[in-house]
Amino acid sequence: MADPQIVAGRRRHVFDSFYSIITLVFILIACVELCDASTVVDVYRLIQYDISGAPFGSRAASINHHAGSSFSPPGSDLSRTVAVLTLRELNETFVREYIEQGKPLGGLLLLLPQVFRSDNSQTVIDDGDYKDMKKKLADLEQKLIHSTIQYPVYFAFEDEDLANVLADIQRNDAAGQPATATTGGYKLIVTSPAPKKLASPTITNIQGWLPGLKADGDSNQLPTIAIVASYDTFGAAPALSVGSDSNGSGVVALLEIARLFSILYSNPNTRGRYNILFGLTSGGPYNYNGTQKWLKSFDQRLRESIDYAICLNSLSSGENGLWLHVSKPPENAYVKQIFEGLSNVAEELGLKVGLKHKKINVSNSRVAWEHEQFSRLRVTAATLSGLSVAPNLLEHTGGISDKREFVNEDAVVRGVKLVAESLARHIYGHEGKNVNIFADNSSLAVNPSYIGSWLDLLSKTPRVAPFLSKDSAFIMALKKELADHVVEVNLQHDVIDGMFTFYDSTVNTLQIYQVASVTFDLLLLLVLGSYLITLFSILVITTRGLDDLISLFRRPPSRKMKST
Amino acid sequence: MTMFHFFNCAILTFGPHAVYYSATPLSEYDTLGTSVKTAVVYLVTALVKLVCLATFLKVSESDVFDPSQELLKALIGFIDVAGLYFALTQLTHRNISQNHKFQAVGLGWAFADSVLHRLAPLWVGARGLEFTWDYILQGLEANANLMLSLSLAALGSLMWLRKNKPKTLIPIIYACAGFVATMPSITSYLRWGLGWHLPEVVGFQLFTSLTMALVSWQLFSACQKPSA
Lengths: 564, 228
Hints:
The structure holds two protein chains of two kinds. By secondary structure, chain A is α/β, with parallel strands linked by helices. In chain A, about 35% of the residues lie in helices and about 20% in strands. Chain A is elongated, with a radius of gyration of 34 Å. The two termini of chain A are about 45 Å apart. Chain B is an all-alpha fold. Chain B has eight helices and no strands. Chains A and B meet through strand 19 and helix 13 of A and helix 1 and helix 4 of B. Chain B: InterPro entries: TMEM147.
């Protein structure tokens, strides 16, 4: 007799555990959040930095708004829209209104042509079209770097999916139906935590020492010649700033000169009576902060033994020749000596070298050329550069537009020949003589493929100093390469001057969703509701008869009659 | 908004089943037990089919329509019919008339099919921000499937449960049953072999299911006349 009860109780237990399992499964399923966007793109954020507390760049990182384009009707409120613009058809008025004048915008997505990708295949771009785009991009970068923008700004590269999405958006805008919550369209989402300050960004200076030949019995310190180049960059998007010319060309030239002189100095018979000091400095865009710290770390004797220093910068940018920038007046004996040495060699190579003098204003903290840091510490120095005019703060610092394809390799090779030859003539005392030490087709010839391959590597590595950790693979590679050529290599780690503060979050993923409007969902609900009601009515009518359908809507009258 | 879309698609996919149950006399005769038992039979049938497919079918790399493989799939599809036979004949039902039996069985069959094949994609996919027409089409497919299951159950009950059928109608009944049973193979041929897009396939399914439902209704009422 008790058996049915026990069975029923057991069945209840089974059902209970069954239900709890089901609820657990539902809870687990509810946590599944898959990314089902139609398009997912890597995007690179505009740099965010402060100079002495004054904010610059884009101050926000996350985006969650509908997409619009520059074709939206003028005067419409875009503060909850992300504007998608292409570099090819950049709308100047739009840029002026929203970037320079600071009208409110939900966000900005700039699409760059594929040619500006750093991992693009090497094709020589001689097309006038791309030169225009390079200039447009450089101008845009300068505008963006020097403005304070309250909304997030991202760069992305054009591809098919994005092109389709943009065409759709532009079509909708032109038809006067911008995307909002009630009209559907595209929604752009970038999830990112609020950007944080980078605590103590480091700069790493790499120095190489090639000692000269000391004559027996000579206790005096040998004179030193320094060759310096800064290797870091600064651009609108830190993840894309590869700076092939500024200052990739300088780094590559320094490495090649180190290689050539290491061959000469390896044999005591050809070792010169000068020490050569090679310096790969960081912190170039920030008033050559790294160079200053590097020089301050020098021993007094070493600093006094430096005869002169040559700083290499942007060797490919010169339209017709290179410029030697000095801070001491041109009548100075040392300056004259350096310049004549260079000019003689330049004549033989068919290059033009001009001399430019720029006085240093000690009270102004702005340092436009690297040699100025040497001059402030009373070391004779000059900068050899393709640029003719001193760049302003954060100008010509190797931004997105400075790509490998725009670098003139021949100009870099000629620059290397120029510096190496004039240096060697000075070291070995052959000034004025018609001697070609680094002749072509000799074992000391300048190696264009060495220059080419290092330029390739530099063009693929973004090198903005605050985002380059002190033990990054790139710095180790530079150190190793320099160590192959020189006798002694040292790394010096330091912190960027407090005037500059940087913020993180440089690369993110953008998800583009195609969303339906609320009205569509409501309409669908209406349609489905009426469908189900019709289905219900049809079924009731066909199976039970029309009377049954009507009776469903009438209260049963019999109960009332019964009670009375 | 996205839960809204999920809700819309869910009522499109599962609503008709509930409506059918409550609108027809099924609810009055309390045939829920039959439907639940049929759903369990469907589950077992699905498992058996999966095992057979895994054992006998070669995995092809591309989406090419392979006739021999499709034939094999169709044969395995007949396990469906066997399952339906089992549900109609072998299960013990309470005293419900034949008329209601096939409806309850068909309803349970279609509901289990919808839940197993469509609930998980719906839950995972329709809740996202991205909008696609897929889930609405899937709901329409569920509707078509409901009608097909009911037709198949009706024809099945005619074939196996009713003993005195007019001689002329027997071949038609078997032909219609065969057609409905091979519907999945036909659909996959259309999609992969001929390359039809999803909306066109769903449209075809709706059309054929409506016609088959009408045809089987006529057949059923025709067979009912002698005994009535």
